[in-house]
Amino acid sequence: MRVLVTGGSGYVGSHAVRELVRGGHDVVIYDNLSTGHRFLSDGYPLIEGDIADGDRLREALQGMDAVMHFAASAYVGESVANPRKYFHNNVESALKMMDAVLETPVRRMIFSSTCATYGTPRQLPITEDSPKDPINPYGATKLFFERVLAAYSASAGLQFVALRYFNAAGAIADGSIGELHTPETHIIPLMMKAALGSAPPLSVFGGDLETPDGSCIRDYIHVSDLGAAHVKALEYLANGGPSISMNLGTGRGVSIRELISTFERLTGRTVPHSYAPPRAGDPPVLYADASLAERVLGWKATRDLETILASAWKWQQKIESQM
Ligand SMILES: NC(=O)c1ccc[n+]([C@@H]2O[C@H](COP(=O)([O-])OP(=O)(O)OC[C@H]3O[C@@H](n4cnc5c(N)ncnc54)[C@H](O)[C@@H]3O)[C@@H](O)[C@H]2O)c1
Hints:
Layout: E1 2-6, H1 11-22, E2 26-31, E3 46-48, H2 54-60, E4 66-69, H3 76-81, H4 83-102, E5 108-114, H5 137-156, E6 159-165, E7 167-169, H6 187-196, E8 202-205, E9 217-218, E10 220-222, H7 223-238, E11 244-248, E12 254-255, H8 256-267, E13 273-276, H9 291-297, H10 305-321
Parallel strand pairs: 1-2, 1-4, 2-3, 4-5, 5-6, 6-11, 7-10, 8-13
Antiparallel strand pairs: 9-12
Helix pairs in contact: 1-7, 2-4, 4-5, 6-10, 8-10
This protein binds nicotinamide-adenine-dinucleotide (NAD).
């Protein structure tokens, strides 16, 4: 299939692009490079454009069979401090993108949603039926857009899969691409930079939370496993599967303390760190029940925490040596 990948020059999108091509699909990346990086698109067709630019997008959609929509503003903390940016980019611009899509024959869409749509869970693991009550503007924008897709699915024949990722982590096995956000706010690169001395000691937000070791618990999912799920979701839609939202995680919660100790054991490095108050909009525990994706897509995460950390470490060392 021919797939337009919005946000394909970003972290998750660039890994999905490689999985799509490996799966025999043709891709065109559509990205405004606001947080993405041109080199992550090297070797793949890239149209530089904003999702709000209907004319450019309609042209890019010519001959496409599906859209994978990764393009968004994606920092929880920034969304709390600057919600306007999030409502503008993730809702207003995304609605303009949908207007352009619906003016073309393209009716298949795969959307990067998030566990932030659930807010603070009342039960664990989080299933797709868990209440959706986002506690930060980022999660609110993603939930709103899922509802847009559901409405357009009912009214305009759109077929969509919304994939609610938990914490994307790791890097492609060959070390050619990996996680690179500017500014970096994600825990694994920050931990590795602290270990390398290229960033200040890691601030761990929350040291006496109501969790077994007092630190935050997250479900880290390898970014290439996420990419593989997108390929499966595309095939699911091509086979006429009905619109659906589903979790993508491993089902295993990992605390920050465990993350640090596993990294230290794997690499022999020490992570200088200190504890800071919990961040607004940051639930203490999040991990997925990912069984729906297994039942519907035949997909399951295949890479464990050690693989995630080893691949991220390979990437981080490479990128630091180039800076
Ligand atoms: N990284 C995670 O752990 C995680 C977890 C859950 C969901 N997600 C979602 O996955 C998607 C990708 O996240 P990421 O971590 O790769 O972030 P990223 O910032 O690396 O990638 C986002 C990409 O979208 C592009 N973009 C942003 N706004 C755009 C616009 N208006 N027009 C065109 N391009 C635009 C950016 O330039 C960038 O290349 C986002 O939708 C995010 O909400 C990420």
